[in-house]
Amino acid sequence: MVSYLEFEKPLAALEARIGELRATAADGDIDLAGEISRLEKKSAALLSSTYGALTPWQKTQVARHPMRPHFVDYVNLAFTDFMPLGGDRYFGNDEAILGGFARLNGRRVMLIGHEKGHDTASRIKHNFGMGKPEGYRKAIRLMELAGRFGLPVVTLVDTSGAFPGVEAEERGQAEAIARSTEACLGLATPMVSVVVGEGGSGGAVALASAERVLMLEHSVYSVISPEGASSILWRTPEKAADAAEAMKVTAQHLEKLGVIDRIVPEPVGGAHRDPALMAERLASAIDEELETLAKIPSAERIRLREERFLRIGRS
Fold first, then answer.
1. CA distance 261 to 119
2. What is the pLDDT of residues 101-144, one digit of tens each?
3. What average pLDDT does this structure show over 79-87?
4. Distance from C-alpha of 41 to C-alpha of 38, rounded to nearest angstrom
5. Helix residue ranges, H only, 52-200
6. Which pLDDT belongs to residue 192?
7. Which of the chain's ends, N or C, has fewer CB atoms near its CB within 10 Å?
8. 231 and 277 part of one domain
9. How far is CA 152 from CA 101, 105, 212, in A?
10. Which bin fits 87, alpha (ψ -120 to 50), beta or left (φ > 0)?
11. What pLDDT, on a 0 to 100 scale, did the predictor assign at position 315?
12. Helix axes 9-27, 33-51, angle to 10 degrees
């Protein structure tokens, strides 16, 4: 079943009507094929027009959709031979940031990413995708391991931000994020990062400081959530839509600003409507980027990686 967002209510009503007609046609002798076909065409057109004109705040809602594919989904749909590796060798294992060896179209890679979970139990287990210091230190360990084995690194970013709890601060959250960012920038092997949902603050940057940064069409990437910015600027979270517009959080805005390099198109209606197709497109985009980066010498890649971030914000 599809979970509808607030702005999708007209679409929900239309698809509910189609469902009712199908049930009626299946139970009786009435031929409703023509009416069903007409409504399906109307529904497809409405879906296309709705998602073709989303506001930044609506895109934020799509990026957070409860049915949107996460790290584990892409592991199962786009990668093979995934061998998870756990622990930071200092404190423990963080379930919000997962990683391990994998293959992408036969190419061996080190895959790292945030996992939010899909239901109450899994969301609590994965801490809603909010990494703790041990998660970022695990990411550093895996990046260093990839460097020793000469493996490209692929990261899938999807977090509202790093975990802000007291225990995280006690264990050095800021230092862990900084070290993870440093590890990305100094990595000798190719690195491709993809924001597949939310890219929130330093918790995202710590896994996205790559020479190629991609975003899914309806994902968002920002220094703070729209609600957080609204609370600071207007003293109320109710101005979140205005904040999202002002912050230019969408993939389309960020590509124009030079913050990201490429947008990966989503299926009509968002990645959650066809996870298999989204995974296929994601795998193809990452594979193309890795193929290009593999032809560039290591020292040149590191220089280009540093320069791409130093250019951001310059006129």
1. 32
2. 999 999 999 999 999 999 999 999 999 999 999 999 999 999 99
3. 96
4. 5
5. 56-63, 71-78, 120-125, 133-149, 166-170, 173-186
6. 97
7. C
8. yes
9. 10, 13, 12
10. left
11. 58
12. 160
Could you tell me where the DSSP H helices lie in the chain?
Answer: 9-27, 33-51, 56-63, 71-78, 120-125, 133-149, 166-170, 173-186, 201-208, 226-233, 240-247, 251-257, 275-293, 298-311
pLDDT digits (tens, 9 = 90+) for 213-272: 999 999 999 999 999 999 999 999 899 999 999 999 999 999 999 999 999 999 999 999
Q: What is the mean pLDDT of residues 276-293?
A: 96
Residue 1 lies in a domain: no
Enclosing domain of residue 38: 6-53
* In-domain check, residue 224: yes
Domain for residue 105, yes or no? yes
Backbone angles phi, psi at 102, to 5 degrees: -160, 170
Give the C-alpha separation, 285 to 292, whole Å. Answer: 11
- CATH number, domain with residue 228: 3.90.226.10
CA distance 241 to 70: 24
Same domain, 42 and 82: no
Same domain? 116 vs 257: yes
Same domain for 95 and 243: yes
In this structure, the answer to whether residues 290 and 180 fall within a common structural domain is yes
Q: Is residue 261 part of a domain?
A: yes
pLDDT given for residue 124 in this prediction: 96
If one compares 171 and 31, the residue with the highest pLDDT of the two is: 171
Cα-trace Rg, the chain: 21
66 phi/psi in degrees, rounded to 5: -60, -20
Domain count, the chain: 2
How confident is the model over 197-206, as a mean pLDDT? 93
How would residue 1 be classed by pLDDT, with cut points 50, 70 and 90? low
